[in-house]
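Lecture 7 notes: from sequence to structure.

We start with a single chain of 206 residues. Read the sequence below before looking at the structure.
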Amino acid sequence: MNPLGETLAKRCIHRFRPHQDQDPLKPGFRCLQGLVNLLPNGPDDGGLIVCKGAHMASEDFHKEFINEPRIPAWTPEWFGYTEAGQAWLEAKGYQWEKVCAEPGDLLVWDSRTPHYNLSSKTQQPRFCVYTCYMPVADASQEDLIRKKDAFERWVGTTHWPNARHTGSNVGKRNGEEDPHNRFVPRNMPDMHERAFKLTGIPYIRA
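Now the structure, written as tokens:
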């Protein structure tokens, strides 16, 4: 497997492990992860599971587990919870909750929140668009240049809006690349002024 393939495989494995998408060595609020739900998403339809309220205990947790070996990850902005870590959350009274949603619902959560995804147990597919937020002051000129590059190549920026990591997963069916994969929009967007500002491109200093 090539390095890119290994990275994508690790991302898929990590997706189903309880984790937080924030480097424990960079505490405090930094990013509001989110998604816009596009199809009905009930209790058995897979999707987002969160450890409700546990982001408030993030600093205490990581102080106590500072010497625990970390689960290897493709970025320091990912921290996986071991069985010991999950037991700590449970002992503190935090509980896991499946988030159900209707089409058009916007879900947001602090990136320190332990969470993971489950596969659907029904015939209802999961379909959503990830849309995340962070303070604009935290985006450097270098970040904006990366965002511009990602925008022009139509690749993803993970859940960090400052485009710290860029790239796109390639969907497969039965081990083969899905023939329905697209690497550019079917219909190119007609962007109004506010949408274009959200790309960060207008704020790049020449």
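Residues 21 and 175 are 28 Å apart (CA to CA). Keep this in mind for problem set 3.
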